[in-house]
Amino acid sequence: MRSLIWPVCQYEKSVIAPAVAQCPTMDVSPLGTIAVATDFSEPASVAVGWAHRLGALHGARLVLLHVLGGTRERQLSPDEAQRGIDGIAATIRSEGLRVEVKLIEGAPGAALGPASIDLGADLLVVGSHGHGAIKRLLLGSVAEEVLRTAALPLFVVHPRDGQRPIRFRTALAGVDFGDASRRAAQLAMRMLDRSPEARLLLLSVTQLPVSFVGPEVPAMPLVEVSEVTDTAREGVCRLTREFGGHGVAVEGLVCPGAPAEAIIDTAEDRRADFVAVGGVPRSSAARFLLGSTAMDLVHHAACPVLIAR
Asked: Structural domain of residue 115, as residue ranges?
């Protein structure tokens, strides 16, 4: 079922928003270093393609990472891994991009995040198998483990993303007005190109808090629908003003429904090139309560997913 989307407010790229002066720390600088994991699989190849394009767009240093040992299905000797990763790097270097390679040891899911941080990466790009593949690698024990444990932003790419244009022109950021979603929106804006069509969409999804009475009695809303919607509209307008005036058009949206479903529907409706959300908390209890939206998007979104802590 398609979600009902309410446009709230927008700032074109030429408009300097009143709130900009209150946010002098807004970082809109190009990305400096992008790490991308490869195990030479199809999902990894697609991830490298997106990382390559993003690196070229920003003039960034691209670091190719491979974990020695890899998975049981795909074990290479150090020499084989070195030849494989050097071949990928040579192809990318031929197009003028700065590329480095690094072979690391350890469990892939646990090793990729720390290695990327040691390299000073702004972002780690990983490939996943996507739909229904939780029992398979990469998503299941590698990409999902990185998602749960890494302390830096992740950009998760699916094999089907290899069939779509690699663009960074329209980003949809799901916002709940917390710090993590704000960081996700800010990084999404940094990742966008600076073409006239570049646009950041800020989406607040409204859900009614309810009280549970009993199995035979419907749950009762604790607040009025209008109250929740008005609060979301005010928050989105405030955030849209804050993000406006930085060289990218910004539009605020409010949509009722379940967060992951609404984000997926809106991204398809607005033809977003990727979506962004605040990340999965690192504690197990918080992950269970708050991490479902990010995980659902990784599994089901029809475009790449940016996750920021």
From this structure: 33-163
